[in-house]
Amino acid sequence: MARLLSRLRFRLVLLALASLALAYVLLCYVISLAPGQRLAPTNPRVEDVVREITTPYTATIRSEAAYQPMTVPPDAILAERRVINGYEVAIWEPAAGKWWEYGHSMAQITSPGGETQIIDFVSRIDPVSGTDITGDGVPELVVERYSGGASCCFSCVVLRLGEELTRISLPLDSSTQATFRDLDGDGIHEVIGTDNRFRCVLCCCANSPLPTVVLKYDRERGYIPASPDFPEIYDAVIPEFQARAEGRWNGPFEEQDPTGRCYVLPLVLAYLYSGRAAEAWEALAQYSPSTADAEELRGEIERILSGSRLFVTQQSGSYLLAVREDLLRAGRSRRRRDC
């Protein structure tokens, strides 16, 4: 009888907490509808005034419209100001005690003609800003954004500061900060980042591989995936990944991977993203616990790669995705694995 009463009290407590949570949500919704409570942005959205270079990947790029840029609050603190090619760039941070209202910094970009654009969720201005990273003689501004959260994500807004403010396509949302560097010595910067497609899928989040990706600049399409053009980036890490595979070390949370698949994934993906599929599947067969495990993992890898806009298989060309049509048609659901 006592146990029954205890269970009943526990369920009543849960019901009360759920009712309070529902009441709080309803209250927030009512307040949001009250007139005069929301500050409507007076500045146009970035994509309304910035002409973006179109690419085959544009349709999948996260839209700026989702963030509803706002005006800079009057009590915001000016953290940085610089002038690049006649454009004034100011970084504003929330005033003391106001992080709970708008917990992010903003970049305010004012053209020589006085037009102002605002980008929110700013984490920093990349050090390459103010230099010509595309080789056309015009300096660029690179604004790094961070959305927050345990899993995601850094992104970059690349703006050409010419006669018009032009946005250059960069389809990269990454768990790590992007690096701009001239890898081939042609005077044009490539972008090095990571692909998030394998995060929290085949391994727990803390052990998930983050394959390196390289994007190169194209005058017509902006930045496009070109990892196979730069195999030296992967050659620098393959020995470490091979040692990890040989030692069957799954990472700091290896107890979360009873299948043993996580120790071989970094090596396989390094070969795949650098355009060496034969070496990738050979390594998978060599270090997997069994042939059946290798075949199953290969299918999962190909399924995930089929949905990645950053994975390409050809060098300096049409950039085709490597997919198996049967796996693509199967449409297996993506599963999240948490540590």
Quick structural gist:
The chain has helices at about 1-35, 45-50, 230-235, 240-245, 265-275, 275-285, 290-305, 325-330, and strands at about 50, 75-85, 85-95, 105-110, 115-125, 140-145, 155-160, 165-170, 175, 180, 190-195, 210-220, 220-225. It has about 350 residues and is an alpha+beta fold. Strands 1, 2, 3, 4, 5, 6, 7, 8 and 9 form a nine-stranded mixed β-sheet that branches. Strands 10-11-12-13 form a four-stranded antiparallel β-sheet, with no helix packed on it.
SSE topology:
Layout: H1 2-33, H2 46-49, E1 51-52, E2 77-84, E3 87-93, E4 105-110, E5 116-125, E6 140-146, E7 154-161, E8 165-168, E9 173-174, E10 179-181, E11 190-194, E12 212-218, E13 222-225, H3 231-235, H4 238-246, H5 265-273, H6 277-287, H7 291-305, H8 325-330
Would you kindly provide a written description of the structure presented here, covering whatever features stand out?
With 339 residues, the chain is α+β, with helices and mostly antiparallel strands. It has 8 helices and 13 strands. Strands 1, 2, 3, 4, 5, 6, 7, 8 and 9 form a 9-stranded mixed sheet that branches. The chain has a 4-stranded antiparallel sheet with strand order 10-11-12-13, with no helix packed on it. A hairpin with an 8-residue loop joins strand 10 (179-181) and strand 11 (190-194). The relative contact order is 0.09.
- Give the number of DSSP strands: 13
Radius of gyration over C-alpha positions, nearest whole angstrom = 24 Å
Please give the count of helices: 8
Instruction: Give the helix/strand class.
Output: alpha+beta
Q: Characterize the biggest β-sheet.
A: 9 strands, mixed
Q: What's the overall geometry? A: flat
Uncertain residue segments = 30-69, 316-336
In the residues, how many domains can be counted? 2
β-strand percent reads 15-25%
